[in-house]
Amino acid sequence: MMVLMHVSAGADQINAVINLIESNGLKALRLPGSEHVAVGVASSIPPSLRDPLYQELIACSGVDHVVHISRPYKLASREFHSEDTVINIKGVDIGGSKCVVMAGPCSIESREQIFESARAVQDAGAKILRGGAYKPRTSPYAFQGLGPEGLSLLKEVGDALGILTITEVVSPEGVALVAAHADILQIGARNMQNYPLLIAAGKSGHPTMLKRGPSASLDEFLLAAEYLLHHGTSSVMLCERGVHPLDRTYTRNTLDLNAVPVLKQVSHLPVIVDPSHGIGVSRYVAAMAAAGIACGADGLIIEVHPDPRSARSDGAQSLTPDEFKQLMARVGKVAEAVDRSI
Ligand code: PEP
Ligand code: MN
Description:
Oligomer: single chain
Strand content: 15-25%
Low-confidence stretches: none
CATH class of the largest domain: Alpha Beta
CATH topology of the largest domain: TIM Barrel
CATH superfamily of the largest domain: Aldolase class I
Number of domains: 2
Number of helices: 11
Shape: elongated
Bound molecules: phosphoenolpyruvate, manganese (II) ion
Largest sheet: 8 strands, parallel, barrel
Strand order of the largest sheet: 7-8-9-10-11-12-13-14
C-alpha cells in the first residue's frame, strides 16, 4: 500500500500518516518524490487490516490518495516508486540518461594483470572496474580466486586510478570486508536466493548489484532484490546474465533480453546486462552488448583480460583490450540511437 500526500502536505501531516501505519505494527517508509511525498507500507498487511487501514489512511488530512500495490515485491516495484532510481557513487550515475559500463577480468590474478586491465578499460571509457576475488566455481578444483589479497589489489588499483570497483561477495560473513574494499557488492547468479547473504548485504547499506539466477523467474529475481531493499540498501541494481540454455553447442547461456524491458516497466531499479556470461563466447559479446543497450539496459558488465588465453577463469568469453575498445565504439552508436550515451 502506498499513500500519496498532497503537494502542499506539511511535515505534521506526513508524520501523522507514518505514526498511524506504525501504530498498526507495520513499517512505514517516507519516499520523497520530485512533486510530492509518498509514504509506503513496507510490510505485508494482514488481510483483516487491509480495508480498515485503507479507510483510516484516506481520512487523514493531507492525503491525496492511497493505492494498493499488486506486485508481490513492493519496494522494488514501480507502483511504489514511479521514477527511475539513479544511484550516484562518487559522481558516477547508474540508472540515469547515461549508460554505465563496468569491465575487467573475471578473476583478479595478480597486481600486473589487474592494473593492466584497469588502465585498458578506463582508457576505453568504462567507469567501473570489475574483478572477482572470490570465485564460486562449479568445480572445487578450479581457481577459487585470490580472496583477501585480491580485494586489497582491487582497492589499490581503484584508489590509484580513480575508478569505481565492483566485486562478488559470497558469504554473509564476507560482506563487511568486501564492502570495505569495493564500491559495489556483486551477488552472483548462484547466490541470488542465498537469503542470509541478501540480508547481510542489505543491512550493510552498500550499493549492490544482484545477478539473476540461471533458472529464476522475474518475480523470484525481484523478490530477491526486495530482500536487499527491505533490509536497508536503497542502491540496488538488477543484472540479467543469461538463463539456462536449450542447447550448449554454440553458446554458454541464453541472454534473456526479454527481461530488460519488462524489468524496466515493473521496477524502478537500474538494469545492467552481462553479455559475457549471457552468451559465453567472446566473438559474440559485442553483438549482445549492443542489443542490451538497444532494448533499454542502463549499463553493461563485460569481461576483459589482457591475455584471455591465459585467464584463470572465463577466458573463452573475455575480450582483449582492443576488442573491448571496438565494443565501446559500437555500443556508443547504439546508445545514441536510443537517446542515451555512454
Ligand atoms: C562473474 O561475474 O564472474 C560471475 C561468476 O557471474 P555469475 O554469477 O553471473 O555466474
Ligand atoms: Mn566470470
